[in-house]
Amino acid sequence: MSLTDVIEGTRQAVSADPANAAVSFTVDHQLVGGTATQVDVKVRDHAFRVDEPAPLGGTDTAANPVEYALAALGSCQVITYQFWAAKLGVPLTSVKVTVEGDLDLHGFFGFNETRPGFTDVRVTVDLDGPASREAYEDLKRQVDEHCPVLDLFRNPTPTKTALA
Predict the structure, then answer these.
(1) Using an 8 Å Cβ cutoff, are 74 and 149 in contact?
(2) How many CB atoms lie under 10 A from the CB of residue 111?
(3) pLDDT in the model for residue 1
(4) How far apart are CA 157 and CA 69, in angstroms?
(5) Mean pLDDT of 81-99
């Protein structure tokens, strides 16, 4: 099935019933026994591990949470570029995204009142294809407006935490 088929099928489903646009995702996390930083993550029928590098007390068996956050942003950008290129009819030969983020560990460790999150995130997108620069600039505007993970980075999201 092509991306344009997916877009049109989704448009029809949402037009028939706007409730079809509401989706929910669940991810389960479990600390790996005997470790301080290894976490097993389950998403639908998929699983992966999260860990910290040795300088942060981990065993470096996997990427850490903030690296996965950057990976989520970059991956969402690549996918959103593909969707919007198909939707707009903009030909793409390749999409490469590099995401860099800066943290100040003062906040994570509670050394001072510095916020624990990223202080700066930079996304560099390299598009290749036969379209004009203007077509790719328009594509970028659409992706920046519609990328769900970019929206998470740019805007506050109501979030609640609770002990079970």
Answers:
(1) no
(2) 10
(3) 84
(4) 15
(5) 97
